[in-house]
Design goal:
cytoplasm; coiled coil; mainly alpha; DEUP1 protein
């Protein structure tokens, strides 16, 4: 996209340079035209040089025709330049709107990521709490199991003593 903008800028600069050359030529032709008109006036004063005067008039007419063509070309160049400027402006506007859209999208994704990080942190905290609770319950069950095994052992001992006492009685 940047290359497109560079091309358009280069094209604009090229057309601006052409425009300036055309204007300079117009100024030179105007100066030349003024000189020709002065020369023509001098020739009209001198009757013997009437043929030169006709020739100068033709030259002036030719120069006028050239000036008219240059003016038309200049107008065409101005229209082209305006088209290119409008195109560059539209492209820049599109580029800016795309940048804004991308900034909003990045901001939304960043916010979503932040929310997910908070959720993960909360889940990790709950998992840690549950793990501690589970460890405590396992410890309690281990103690209860040890007590039960002790009670089972004591029961078997008492049962064995009772059986032995019954045998004795």
């Amino acid at each position: 996209m940047e290359a497109g903008f560079s091309e358009m800028r280069n094209e604009l600069q090229s057309r601006d340079a052409l425009w300036r050359r055309i204007q300079l030529e117009c100024q030179q032709l105007h100066t030349e035209l003024l000189k020709i008109r002065e020369y023509k006036d001098m020739q009209e004063i001198q009757i013997k040089h009437q043929s030169s005067c006709v020739q100068l008039t033709e030259q002036v007419e030719n120069k006028n025709a050239e000036l008219l063509l240059l003016a038309q070309s200049q107008e065409h160049q101005r229209e082209e330049l305006n088209k290119i400027r409008n195109h560059v402006y539209r492209e820049e506007q599109y580029h800016r709107s795309e940048q804004e859209r991308m900034k909003r999208e990045i901001s939304d994704l960043t916010e979503e990521l932040h929310q997910k990080e908070i959720t993960i942190a909360t889940i990790m905290e709950k998992a840690s709490l549950l793990e501690r609770q589970l460890k405590m319950e396992l410890e309690i069950k281990d103690r209860l199991l040890a007590k039960q095994q002790l009670l089972d052992f004591q029961y078997k001992v008492i049962k064995s003593e009772n059986a032995h006492l019954k045998d004795m009685v």
